């Protein structure tokens, strides 16, 4: 099959690789019909994430048709159309049973798990196409993918709904939803969102759906600000205004009730402390750039909540922990517990309560993925979200 | 431009992975690890006590031949990837609680281990603790071998328990190994 593979910094290519196979009884093989490039894929593209090997297949936002199912899966059958969560979770462990699938204890294979246990204290959960730290699973920017625990993760899509409408159930829609939920929004709250990329845009939509009275969105790309505005947000361009002063003024001195950091480490790299020298070299070490995290803590009102869907990897310098404590803040964060949200979010799409496609800027054949990566990185104003279709 | 494969793969052999709190045991290299498994104590004990099950989830125990009620012959992947054979005798067997074993004379390597099963105090399942230890073959320890010895049982115990937990909780063992489970492309064939 054809697949988008990683070959070093700023070097992704389309390769012909072996088709995936059923290995475990609960596996399924999906013929992929739509797949997307995520902002976090750019960290892989920039070669900032340790644990990558030549030839790894990328991609963690995908959907398609079940073409093969292991004998241990009785809930999926050939021909089913499914969206696959980017998080791989077993459904049986302590964390899955607590509805925390993004903390699953079993999906990271035993031979891959050491690195993240050393980096973070316990083992990271498995995910598709995101380095050996998350298990080294082949990703979904390809024609086929092997999906472990396929009786627990993938959600079936009814006929008559286009792929594009549901594709983002794989990652960014639940991520935006959880980001808003983590704000603990009360009716009429003002929510400030940093980053108007796809996650930020979904966070804006979801904040309104969860009862926010106002959403203030912060970015500098004109097109992304326009998308935010089209979704009901008031926008601030941080190249033109002093964000914190503007937020104080707009909220009559109170500060926003909650703040969402949908930016994360600013492509300065995953920086686990002293994992290996090779990692230091490849990441050109520094601490994570935590500028947005700092700003959200300083900007939010006293007693408010900071919600962090943005990805961080290592250590941050000069986080205002004094402000955090003295203002009595709550910080909620984490990789998205996708499986937990899927049924309710699918209902919302089918009921027409949310537009999940307005952020798509480009639709391309999978063969053009390498070009798409380059543009997605270099032309962020024009390229908001890329959906790829295998031929 | 070097011809080494491009990779940012974290190298597990790096000194950065060395556990600094090495446990000093009777043998040259040993380890203790604990894990929580959401299955009843008796189910876990019964599965492990049937030694023929060990090769199902263990990456080091390649085969087990049961000789009698307490003795069995194991082929184990030893340090450096070489197979070693040992005859194991079960020295303690407390039903649903603890199994201990040790290698007998005539084994390629001195090996002992024990596993304990305890109820989690608040009903989250079973706490499983595994201890394995061995002396290097021949008792003569080169510096390089000793270094490997220090790390291998710790890594082994950690991985054995993880695979055992995966099997007991999910019915399968997680894998992403290329080429079957994770097909990979390469331009440097």
From TrEMBL, chain A:
InterPro entries: ADH-like_C, ADH-like_N, GroES-like_sf, NAD(P)-bd_dom_sf. SUPFAM superfamilies: GroES-like (SSF50129), NAD(P)-binding Rossmann-fold domains (SSF51735). Keywords: Metal-binding, Oxidoreductase, Zinc. The keyword Calcium does not apply. It is an enzyme of class 1 (oxidoreductase). Pfam families: ADH_N, ADH_zinc_N. Residues 25-153 form the Alcohol dehydrogenase-like N-terminal domain. This is Zinc-dependent alcohol dehydrogenase. It comes from Brevundimonas olei.
